[in-house]
Description:
Layout: H1 19-26, H2 31-39, E1 57-61, E2 67-70, E3 74-75, E4 83-84, E5 93-98, E6 105-110, E7 116-121, E8 131-134, E9 139-143
Antiparallel strand pairs: 1-2, 1-9, 3-4, 4-8, 5-6, 6-7, 7-8
Amino acid sequence: MSDHRPRSASGFDLTPLSTDTREQLASKLDAESRRVLLHHGTEHPFCGGLLNNKEAGTYCCKLCGLPLFNSDAKFDSGTGWPSFYQPYDASHIRELRDTSHGMIRVEIRCQRCDGHLGHVFEDGPKPSGLRYCLNSASMEFVTKGQPLLLNNPSV
């Protein structure tokens, strides 16, 4: 029997989480991560625990574990939030128009669990010219060489 679940080019299962699974995983999050991921919150600038992380590795969704960004795409944007110029796999990030707070922005969410990650702007460095501006509370860092944290029970 073949597996018909949607997969990214990098081989990860992109099947949306069921409501029950999402709630089960969310129950394990701290209050700040719940506020950011589930209620589209934003942490204060220069406060996130991953802002100054310089280790080699992968930044994964804190809710479902899907890899989002590699450390080699991270740069210091001076904005106070971890910033990246390209995702781990473009299909792992979903973009939505955000007109909240009296401005037009592009919100980014995890493709698998729909968790709020941050926003993407067109003022980043080459080669992409993009700045993916993330909340530390929405990510879990996995040091290079360690297994990725795939929290999706169906994986």
